[in-house]
Amino acid sequence: MKRRHLAGISVLLMTLSLCACGTEKEKGEIMNEKEAVSENSTPTEEDLSMYASGIATEEATAETPTPQEEADKEEAYILTGEIEERCPAVFSAKRSGVEYGEFTHGVYYSETCGMERGYSILLPAGYSEDKKYPVLYLLHGIFGDEYSFSGDPNNRIREIVGNMAADGLIRETIVVCPNMYAATDPDQKPGFDAEACIPYDNFINDLVNDLMPCIESSYSVLTGRENTYLAGFSMGGRETIFICLKRPELFGYVCAISSAPGLVPTKDKFMSHPGQMEESEMCFAEGATEPEAFILCCGTRDSVVGTYPKSYHELFEANGTEHIWYEISGADHDNNAIQSGLYNLLKQVAIHSEEE
Ligand code: FER
Per residue in 292-318, pLDDT tens? Predict the structure, then answer.
């Protein structure tokens, strides 16, 4: 499987580190601090005897459980309606007792684009035609493709979906990761200007008319909005909002993570955006069936899209469009935001299915 950066924009903007995995980095820093402390302090006789008997090592491990150990701790998770800024380690870490799904790749013919196109699909472990599964469509960032999520193990998609299903919070769920660049000209390559956004804005047609029918006929899926979820990161977040507003009858649970500018007319540090819609259109059509949950979120330290997601939230608020908005303290344009959005989206699914 090809490995791609999550958001290709990082290749363009050398100042950014979009593949950041803050958790790993933070862990590293904490370890270094611990090492520094132990180097500087003279061990006592008691310390030395503890090292000799192995107690010290045991204690050190007990103090700093690895994410795996934390995940393996059999603590009952209490489902509340609260948004949690960070995806808890108990869901993002690989557990020894859980079998996770695997990503595979498929193709479909897109009438919209006039060509064959690919998607990655995460099928639950033990996927069977005898069962039916809800589906999450997950949209990548700019310069991405269908391998952006499947090729990055640090986004923890397999673990979050697998652990939440293993705990009985959600049903076993299929995740489809399309190629969101729906160009009609096979020679047109992704770029970074307003013109180059047109294929991404065309994805709504490819998704609804070509990809969703293909998935629904090729896999054993539950259909209907209550079993169909939509989420996206950055450029994928912008398109998630657009698709949700235009086709709310199709998706019951929606999460736009760190959404890119350009949904409405604006000029950011990179370019002028003509806008996919006017500010007054940032709402559902009158009488439309609205999602059970429509989440917008962003890291407080997002160095790429800045406060654009918050401005979408403010527009929704001004227009009386129901949604959930939250910020992820300290997260950049990165996997911390992706994990958080995915987790909270599935948590909303869990909460609503508990209520039924
Ligand atoms: C922009 C800023 C950010 C933009 C797109 C992005 C098209 C997308 C970033 C990403 O997907 O990571 O002005 O315009």
Answer: 999 999 999 999 999 999 999 999 999
Domain boundaries 84-355, corresponding CATH code: 3.40.50.1820
Which residues pair with residue 294 across a beta bridge? 254
Residues within a 6 A CB radius of ligand 1: 7, 9, 141-142, 197, 234-235, 260-262, 268, 270-271, 304-305
Per residue in 58-97, pLDDT (tens digit) is: 333 446 666 666 666 656 688 888 999 999 999 999 999 9
Please tell me whether the overall predicted TM-score, pTM, comes out greater than 0.85 for this model: no
pLDDT tens for 281-290 read 999 999 999 9
Q: How far apart are CA 275 and CA 278, in angstroms?
A: 7
- To test ligand 1's pocket by mutation, which of 197, 241, 270 has the most ligand atoms within 8 angstroms of CB? 270
User: What DSSP letter does each residue of 98-136 carry, written as one string?
Assistant: -PPPEEEEEEEEETTTTEEEEEEEEEPTT--TTS-B-EE
Query: What SS3 class is residue 231?
Result: strand
Rounded CA Rg of the chain: 22
Higher model confidence: residue 26 or residue 161?
Answer: 161
Locate tokens 């380690």: which residue? 89
The DSSP symbol for 351 reads H
Rounded to 5°, the CA angle 97-100-101 comes to 160
Residue 260 to residue 253: CA distance in whole angstroms: 20
Domain ranges of the chain: 84-355
